[in-house]
Amino acid sequence: MIDNKKVLFSGMQATGNLTLGNYLGALKNWVTLHDEYECFYSVVDMHSITVRQDPAVLRKRARALLTLYIAAGLDPEKNCIYYQSHVSGHAELAWILNCFTYMGELSRMTQFKDKAAKHADNINAGLFTYPVLMAADILLYQTDVVPVGIDQMQHLEITRDIAQRFNGIYGDVFTIPEAYIGKTGAKIMSLQDPTKKMSKSDENVNASIYLMDDPDAIRRKCKRAVTDSLGEIRYSDEQPGVKNLISIYSACLNKTPEEVEREFAGRGYGEFKEAVGEAVVSVLEPLQKRVHELEKDKSYIDGIIKNNAEKATYYAQKTLRKVQRKIGFPDRIR
């Protein structure tokens, strides 16, 4: 807890390009959380290197992601927005926690199995111990709550297990984090396979709308979205493609699915897809404009990077020094 506020931590990888799903499902709903929580939002670039990266591209994408956080409405004066690699405590705590994590636990992680299958030529130790670094990310700030999707619950569970194991040996050192259950963001699915979430790593370029897609690309992708042959605009599990488009339209214009059904009753899919495309453009154009403004103000972004790294380091070091003392590392001479 910081200044009588509970702590919230979340992070995104600096790989790929953020999608409309990332925005409507998460970023859009983070904007006001600082009223209730002390929020830490990390660009988790250390996690990114379990897969080989082009160094110049990784640096560019990390800065672009940090800029997008701000353009989406996260106030860097009220939220700590920083690069994971600029706070050495993440790596230092991860090593310590590695020594309190069991091989069997890590071998059961489904994400390791999935990534190992995708990158069979590079199954490295970092890929295997990835959940321990994630645990360090969370525990370093005495985090109370973590916004997680179903696919990340396993990582939060192992984080809780590691923290409880450490506390059981050394006393009350770590806050045991809980899943953040707040306003639910829209669950946006792939435009080409609406049984899967929209993903920034999808190989089909028409499956995802990226936050920096130009208006023509957005409209084109919406027009090509998979629907069905029923010809009705209904929010139904029997029509996953149409349901997904309704979810997108609803989230963009703050309407309920029922309102959307009434609005488009008796109208065709072509007309509906055009309307969805325009709704997405209306949301993303102001965001893109803000990104371009921020990109031109290099000194402003550099100042945020420096100041927020210092803030994150201050809180990280408080936890890290406590942990180091508990396990018997010698005190530092100041």
- Arithmetic mean of pLDDT: 92
The appropriate CATH architecture of the largest domain is: 3-Layer(aba) Sandwich
Number of strands: 5
Major sheet attributes: 3 strands, parallel
- Content-based structural category: mainly alpha
The name CATH uses for the topology of the largest domain is Rossmann fold
Tell me the number of structural domains.
Answer: 2
Rounded to the nearest angstrom, the radius of gyration is 21 Å
Shape: globular
Provide the low-confidence segments as ranges.
Answer: none
End-to-end distance = 27 Å
Question: Which sequence of strands runs across the widest sheet?
Answer: 1-2-3
User: Can you identify the CATH superfamily of the largest domain?
Assistant: HUPs
Helix fraction bin: 40-55%
Order of helix and strand elements from N to C terminus: EHEHHEHHHHEHEHHHHH
Strand content: 5-15%
Describe the structure.
By secondary structure, the protein is mainly alpha-helical. The chain has a three-stranded parallel beta sheet with strand order 1-2-3. Helices cover 53% and strands 7% of the residues. The chain contains 13 helices and five strands. The radius of gyration is 21 Å and the shape is globular. It folds into two domains: 6-180 and 298-327, HUPs (Rossmann fold), CATH 3.40.50; 215-293, Tyrosyl-Transfer RNA Synthetase.
